[in-house]
C-alpha cells in the first residue's frame, strides 16, 4: 500500500475563499485540530501577505510539532525572507514557492519570457535552499502550460534543490483522465523526477477537483493538496474529507492510503465551518448533515435490516455518532414502526396501519415532520406510552461565573409522590443531569446532546435531543421548552423513563385505543 501525504491548505488557499478572514487565534485553533486529524503538511498561510498572517504562521510553526508546517511565497527574495521569518522555528522548515508556467500567465500577468521564468524559478529555489531544508515548487497553471516547457523547468528546479514538485490545476480546467496523463508525462519526461515527490493541487471550477486528485493518485502522485469542506479560491479546492474517505473505502482499488485519523473528520469540518462562517451544504459528501440520513422507505427498510444495503461509509468512521432515518412522505411502515418504538410506543398491527395512514396524510402537508408532530399524532390516537413515567416538576438552577452551578429538581414519581434532590456540575446542564442521575440511579452514559431552535426569532422554542447508552442499547429522548435548561431536563427525563421501561419491559402495559 502506498502512503499518500495529505497537504492541507485550509489556512492558505482555503482562506482565499471570498468572505473568509481568520485571525491568528482562529488559525491556531484550526491548526491544532488539523494536527489531531493527522495531516502530514499544514500550509498555514502566506507570510508576505500581511504582518498578521506572518505572525499567525509563526505561532503555528512554533507550536505544531506532529505535522510539518509550511507557508507560501512568490518567487521573490522578499516573500521568501518573510516565510523564513515565520517558519524558521518549525520542526522542519519547509517553503512552498510558486511561479506560473502557462503562456497566458507568463505573457499577461508576469510579463516575462519563458526563459526569464525559468531563470526566476531556479534563482528563487536556490535562494530558498540556503535557508529551508525542504523546498516545494509549484508550477502555477501547470494544466494550461506547454508540456515540453513544463518538463524543462521542472528538471531545472529539481536541480536547484526542490524536492517536492506540485502540478496545480489552478483554474480547475482538466478532466480526470487528462490530469492523470499530466502526471504520467512528467514522470516519464523529467529525467531527475525520482529525486522529488509529485503533488496534486486541484480546483473545483468544473466540479472535478476530487476526481482529478484521485486520478493523480492513480498516476503516481505522492501528495495531495486539499482543504477542509472544499474551501478555496473561487469554487474551492478538492475537499480533504472526500479524498480521505475515498482512499479509506477504496484503498484496494487505489492501492494507497493516508495516515489520517478519520474519526476526527466530522469535528474538523464543524470547527472550520464555525470559524470561517461558511456553512456546509446538507448534501455534501461525508460531512453534510444528510450524508448519513436515509429518507425513503425502501432505503430505510434496507438499512434497518442491514446497514450495508445503503451505507458504504459507516458514520462512526468519520466521527458521527449514528445514521438517521428521517421521517417524511417517502418513509415506509418499517421505519415508522421503528421510530415510534424508540419513542416507547408499541401499537398493534391495526393501530399501526391507522397511524401510518395519518402520518402519510400529514407528511403530504408538512415539509419536515418533527418528533413533536409524531408524538402529537400518537397522543391524538390516545396511544399512551406505557407506565411508569416520572414527570419533571420544579427546576431551579443557580449559575454565576464565580459559583459552582447547582440544580435543585423535583420529580413526580408514577405513584404520585414527589422526590427532591440537589446536585452540582461543571455547567448548568451537567448539574441538572448529575442531579437526575442521583434521583433515578441507572447505569446510563450520555452519548450525545444536541440543541436546536424550533423556528426562528428570540422567542423560538428550544428543542433538546439526548442519546443515552444503557448496556448495549441506545435510547434517545427529547424535550421542548421555552427555556434551554428546562428542555435539557425534559429530554433527559424522557430518555430515563424509556430506560426504566426497558428495564421493566415484562411488566409493561400497553394501553389500547
Ligand atoms: C494560485 C494562487 O492561489 S497564488 C496565491 C494567491 N494568494 C494571494 O495573492 C494572497 C496574498 N497576496 C497578497 O497579499 C498580495 O497580493 C501580495 C502582498 C502578495 C502582493 O501584493 P502587491 O505587491 O500589492 O501586488 P499585487 O497583488 O497587486 O500583484 C501581484 C504582483 O506579483 C507578481 N507575481 C505573481 N505571482 C508571482 C510569483 N509567483 N513570483 C513573483 N511575482 C509574482 C505579479 O506579476 C504582480 O507583479 P507586478 O506588481 O510587477 O505587476
Ligand atoms: C499556489 C498554487 C499552488 C495554487 O494555489 C494554485 O495554483 O491553485
Ligand atoms: Mg490554489
From TrEMBL:
Boundaries of every Pyruvate carboxyltransferase domain copy: 4-266
PROSITE patterns: AIPM_HOMOCIT_SYNTH_1, AIPM_HOMOCIT_SYNTH_2, PYR_CT
EC top class named in words: transferase
Enzyme Commission number: 2.3.3.13
GO CC, one annotated term: cytoplasm
Regulatory domain: annotated segments: 391-513
Keywords assigned: Amino-acid biosynthesis, Branched-chain amino acid biosynthesis, Cytoplasm, Leucine biosynthesis, Manganese, Metal-binding, Transferase
Database matches in InterPro entries: 2-IPM_HCS-like (IPR050073), 2-isopropylmalate_synth_dimer (IPR013709), AIPM/Hcit_synth_CS (IPR002034), Aldolase_TIM (IPR013785), LeuA/HCS_post-cat (IPR054691), LeuA_allosteric_dom_sf (IPR036230), LeuA_bact_synth (IPR005671), PYR_CT (IPR000891)
Known pathway: Amino-acid biosynthesis; L-leucine biosynthesis; L-leucine from 3-methyl-2-oxobutanoate: step 1/4
Reaction catalyzed: 3-methyl-2-oxobutanoate + acetyl-CoA + H2O = (2S)-2-isopropylmalate + CoA + H(+)
Cofactor(s) required for function per UniProt: Mn(2+)
Pfam annotation, one family: HMGL-like
GO BP terms, alphabetized: L-leucine biosynthetic process
UniProt record similarity statement: Belongs to the alpha-IPM synthase/homocitrate synthase family. LeuA type 1 subfamily.
Residues bound to Mn(2+): 13, 201, 203, 237
Protein name as catalogued: 2-isopropylmalate synthase
Superkingdom of this protein's organism: Bacteria
Gene: leuA
Function statement: Catalyzes the condensation of the acetyl group of acetyl-CoA with 3-methyl-2-oxobutanoate (2-ketoisovalerate) to form 3-carboxy-3-hydroxy-4-methylpentanoate (2-isopropylmalate).
Gene3D superfamilies linked: 1.10.238.260, 3.30.160.270, Aldolase class I
Subunit structure, interactors included: Homodimer.
A GO molecular-function descriptor: 2-isopropylmalate synthase activity
Amino acid at each position: 500500500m502506498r502512503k499518500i501525504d495529505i497537504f492541507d491548505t485550509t489556512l492558505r488557499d482555503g482562506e482565499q475563499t471570498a468572505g473568509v478572514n481568520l485571525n491568528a487565534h482562529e488559525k491556531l485553533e484550526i491548526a491544532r485540530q488539523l494536527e489531531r486529524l493527522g495531516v502530514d503538511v499544514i500550509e498555514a498561510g502566506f507570510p508576505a501577505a500581511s504582518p498578521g498572517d506572518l505572525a499567525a504562521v509563526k505561532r503555528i510553526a512554533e507550536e505544531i510539532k506532529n505535522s510539518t508546517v509550511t507557508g507560501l511565497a512568490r518567487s521573490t527574495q522578499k516573500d521568501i525572507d518573510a516565510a523564513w521569518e515565520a517558519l524558521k522555528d518549525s520542526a522542519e522548515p519547509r517553503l512552498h514557492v510558486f511561479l506560473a508556467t502557462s503562456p497566458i500567465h507568463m505573457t499577461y500577468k508576469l510579463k516575462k519570457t519563458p526563459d526569464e521564468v525559468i531563470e526566476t524559478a531556479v534563482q528563487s529555489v536556490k535562494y530558498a535552499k540556503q535557508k529551508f531544508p525542504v523546498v516545494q515548487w509549484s508550477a502555477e497553471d501547470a494544466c494550461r502550460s506547454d508540456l515540453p516547457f513544463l518538463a524543462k523547468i521542472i528538471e531545472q528546479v529539481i536541480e536547484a534543490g526542490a524536492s517536492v514538485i506540485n502540478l496545480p490545476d489552478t483554474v480547475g480546467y482538466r478532466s480526470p483522465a487528462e490530469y492523470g496523463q499530466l502526471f504520467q508525462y512528467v514522470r516519464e519526461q523529467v529525467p531527475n523526477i525520482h529525486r522529488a515527490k509529485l503533488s496534486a493541487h486541484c480546483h473545483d471550477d468544473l466540479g472535478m477537483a476530487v476526481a482529478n486528485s484521485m486520478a493523480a493518485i492513480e498516476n503516481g502522485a505522492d501528495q495531495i493538496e486539499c482543504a477542509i469542506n472544499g474551501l478555496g479560491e473561487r469554487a474551492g479546492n478538492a475537499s480533504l474529507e472526500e479524498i480521505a474517505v475515498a482512499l479509506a473505502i477504496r484503498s484496494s482499488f487505489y492501492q494507497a492510503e493516508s495516515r489520517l485519523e478519520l474519526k476526527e473528520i466530522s469535528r474538523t469540518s464543524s470547527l472550520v465551518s464555525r470559524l470561517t462562517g461558511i456553512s456546509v451544504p446538507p448534501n455534501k459528501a461525508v460531512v453534510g448533515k444528510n450524508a448519513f440520513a436515509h429518507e425513503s422507505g425502501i432505503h430505510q427498510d434496507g438499512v434497518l435490516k442491514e446497514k450495508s444495503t445503503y451505507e458504504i461509509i459507516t458514520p462512526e468512521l468519520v466521527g458521527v455518532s449514528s445514521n438517521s432515518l428521517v421521517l417524511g412522505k417517502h418513509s415506509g411502515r418499517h421505519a415508522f414502526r421503528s421510530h415510534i418504538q424508540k419513542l416507547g410506543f408499541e401499537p398493534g398491527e391495526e393501530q399501526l396501519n391507522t397511524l401510518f395512514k395519518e402520518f402519510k396524510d400529514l407528511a403530504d402537508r408538512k415539509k419536515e415532520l418533527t418528533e413533536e408532530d409524531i408524538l402529537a399524532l400518537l397522543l391524538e390516537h390516545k396511544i399512551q406510552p406505557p407506565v411508569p413515567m416520572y414527570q419533571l416538576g420544579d427546576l431551579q438552577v443557580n449559575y454565576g461565573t464565580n459559583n459552582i452551578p447547582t440544580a435543585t429538581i423535583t420529580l413526580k414519581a408514577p405513584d404520585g409522590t414527589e422526590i427532591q434532590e440537589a446536585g452540582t456540575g461543571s455547567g448548568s446542564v451537567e448539574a441538572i443531569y448529575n442531579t437526575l442521575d442521583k434521583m433515578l440511579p441507572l447505569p446510563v452514559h450520555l452519548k450525545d446532546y444536541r440543541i436546536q431552535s424550533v423556528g426562528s426569532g428570540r422567542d423560538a422554542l428550544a428543542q433538546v435531543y439526548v442519546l443515552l447508552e444503557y448496556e448495549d442499547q441506545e435510547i434517545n429522548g427529547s424535550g421542548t421548552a421555552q427555556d434551554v435548561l428546562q428542555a435539557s431536563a425534559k429530554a433527559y427525563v424522557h430518555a430515563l423513563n424509556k430506560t426504566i421501561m426497558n428495564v421493566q419491559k415484562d411488566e409493561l402495559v400497553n394501553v389500547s385505543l
